[in-house]
Amino acid sequence: MSEEAGAPTEAVAVVEPGPVTKDLQAQGFAVTFEGYDHLRIEIVQVPAAELLLVSRALYDTGFNYLRCQCAYDSAPGGDLVSVYDLTQLQDRASRPPEVRLKVYLPRQNPVVPSVYWIWRTADYQERESYDMYGIIYEGHPNLKRILMNEDWVGWPLRKDYISPDFYELQDAY
């Protein structure tokens, strides 16, 4: 710890990018290393325009299982985030390699390519993210509401969503 102008400063640890980030950057992708989660899973930020190319590159290197696709709202009025947890399934691997991709999307026009054509498990997961947050997964074969009624207005899990005072259930009986 050093003192400059009377204020103590703390040393900041520099974390090297993980192996997946380094590999993708070496291939020319404009990805950003975000760090590791509590389980030491590497987190990589991917631009929406490069998601399909990065996904295909990862699939080709063995990340053959999309364990989870989900979304979240980063802050009221902030970006929406589409998240992809990928695993490299291997025979007899006790802890297979994993990576998490994050795509930050503007709230006003949240459009990202669908990864359905790479991992079919994205089908219902992308539909749920669409239904709850309004993220448009371009190229998805059946992007429609999955949890809410088709005539529901708004995106219920956005932090700025205002719940209606009354919603009439039609044909409930």
What does the model show?
The chain has 173 residues and is an alpha/beta fold. 17% of the residues lie in helices and 27% in strands. It contains 3 helices and 9 strands. The chain has helices at 19-26, 51-60, 122-133, and strands at 2-4, 7-9, 32-36, 42-45, 65-73, 80-87, 98-105, 111-113, 136-138. The strands form 3 sheets. It has a 5-stranded mixed β-sheet, covered by helices on one side. Strand 3 and strand 4 (42-45) form a beta hairpin. The radius of gyration is 20 Å and the shape is globular. The relative contact order is 0.13.
Order of helices and strands: EEHEEHEEEEHE
Tertiary shape: globular
Into which percentage range does the β-strand content fall? 25-35%
| Major β-sheet profile | 5 strands, mixed
| C-alpha termini separation | 70 Å
* Largest sheet, spatial ordering of strands: 3-4-7-6-5
Mean pLDDT: 90
* Multimer state: single chain
The total count of helices amounts to 3
Q: Number of DSSP strands?
A: 9
Sequence stretches where pLDDT stays below 50 over 5 or more residues? none
Secondary-structure class: alpha/beta
